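Query structure, 443 tokens:
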């Protein structure tokens, strides 16, 4: 395999990059390669997305259509559903979903389908990099045999194979694709060298590691670290609430320690495509080794339970006002799983709405970034259709409770607390509100 020839193509920017899965991860990667003058061919099974891209449009709110349009017009970016075009590219970066199935076990369907679609079209000399978050061993034990079965090409000999976890953080104003260091593990040293050379063109710092499994595991460690620490503060929140201690003040005080402490914040439960899901990729794999992962399982349980705790807290606050949840009007503020983005995957707001509806509440929501749910395609676990309400003084006053689930920056908390009857706040969003404090219940 011509490793040096490949690197020369990367250096002189004649290498063409393929990105499979044009979503929250895939599109920023495409744009970075485009910015550095590489031609990119994007693959997606969703023809609506492919058509939108080729028409220069964006379906991701924080990515302006002008950036896609500029790349398309410069003939640097084209999208297709046709895997037969795979030989046109030199490198193939795979960023397809890795969710959980109904039994909360890894759903590798998208990775397997992608590998099967690629296999008959794989070309000798290509570089294949998996970027999807997954359990250690996926690249070598799952992806590799499917790719090799296609045309009999051998990974590490006839084509390069690597894993590089994605650390994209949509909506983060301080870091973007090019400034977030990228960990890269290869099947062989040559695989790693080629992958590092490619990523080095778009990313400031590339971090080579000794194997694909180390790279896979490093991503899980990062997200499990967050999951466990959020579980810890959620547990402490439920305890300190009973003790009459404000957890937010406690965290503020502890954060003044200049070393050995890093603040994490409680909330209504975990959301997003990573933190609630990724730990279960490892706990599933750990079972194969008969090795318990108690801490990870427990934090998962706490972070799931805290959503029910919030509903209980709201029920008590209504009860204190001589009202039942059944028949009460509750508006949930913020549908996205975190502030200032339009992504509602695994959002705790969805679970809150479901739990409140189960108890007979009349539930509505407001989100400046999500005018309706579902957004594009049906939701995996929920089956309701709702539209965002306008947050007028009259509407707020008509609600028995306002439940703050996501603290988008655009919310005017003074206005909300002024007109609402009751505000149940899971984000400490109303900390700065001066008047109407008696209406605010922290949850
Ligand atoms: N969203 C994030 O912030 C983030 C951050 C870090 C890591 N990740 C990981 O990156 C991976 C991708 O996540 P995402 O958020 O970009 O997902 P996404 O749902 O936004 O995008 C995935 C895309 O893959 C396409 N797809 C599915 N099956 C395909 C197939 N067989 N062939 C071609 N295209 C196919 C889908 O149509 C979709 O457009 C996941 O493993 C996720 O855990 C995501």
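Result returned for the query:
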């Amino acid at each position: 395999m011509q490793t040096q020839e490949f690197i020369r193509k990367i250096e002189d920017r004649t290498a063409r990059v393929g990105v499979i899965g044009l979503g929250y991860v895939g599109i920023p990667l495409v744009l970075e390669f485009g910015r550095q003058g590489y031609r990119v061919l994007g693959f997606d099974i969703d023809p609506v997305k492919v058509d939108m891209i080729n028409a220069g449009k964006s379906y991701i709110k924080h990515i302006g259509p002008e950036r896609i349009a500029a790349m398309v017009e410069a003939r640097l970016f084209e999208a297709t559903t046709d895997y037969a075009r795979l030989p046109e590219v030199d490198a193939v970066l795979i960023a397809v979903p890795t969710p959980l199935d109904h039994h909360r076990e890894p759903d590798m369907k998208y990775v397997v389908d992608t590998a099967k679609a690629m296999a008959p079209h794989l070309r000798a000399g290509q570089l294949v990099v998996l970027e999807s978050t997954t359990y250690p061993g996926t690249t070598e034990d799952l992806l590799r045999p499917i790719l090799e079965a296609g045309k009999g090409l051998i990974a590490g000999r006839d084509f390069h194979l690597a894993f590089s976890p994605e650390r994209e953080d949509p909506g983060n104003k301080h870091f973007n694709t090019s400034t977030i260091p990228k960990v890269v593990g290869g099947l062989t040293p040559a695989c790693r060298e080629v992958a590092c050379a490619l990523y080095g063109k778009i990313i400031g710092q590339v971090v080579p590691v000794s194997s694909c499994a180390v790279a896979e595991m490093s991503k899980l460690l990062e997200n499990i670290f967050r999951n466990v620490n959020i579980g810890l503060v959620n547990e402490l929140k439920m305890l300190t609430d009973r003790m009459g201690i404000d957890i937010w003040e406690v965290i503020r005080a502890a954060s003044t320690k200049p070393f050995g402490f890093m603040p994490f914040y409680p909330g209504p439960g975990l959301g997003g495509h990573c933190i609630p899901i990724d730990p279960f990729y490892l706990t599933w794999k750990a079972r194969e080794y008969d090795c318990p992962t108690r801490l990870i399982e427990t934090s998962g349980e706490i972070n799931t339970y805290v959503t029910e705790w919030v509903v209980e807290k709201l029920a008590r606050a209504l009860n204190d006002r001589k009202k039942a949840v059944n028949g009460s009007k509750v508006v949930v503020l913020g549908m996205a799983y975190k502030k200032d983005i339009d992504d509602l995957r695994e959002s705790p707001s969805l679970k809150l709405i479901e739990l409140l509806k189960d108890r007979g509440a009349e539930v509505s929501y407001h989100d400046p970034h999500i005018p309706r749910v579902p957004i594009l395609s049906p939701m995996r676990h929920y089956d309701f259709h709702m539209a965002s309400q306008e947050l007028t003084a009259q509407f707020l006053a008509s609600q028995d409770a306002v439940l703050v689930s996501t603290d988008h920056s655009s919310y005017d908390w003074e206005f909300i607390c002024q007109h609402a009857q009751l505000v149940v706040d899971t984000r400490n969003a109303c900390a700065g509100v001066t008047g109407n404090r008696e209406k605010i219940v922290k949850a």
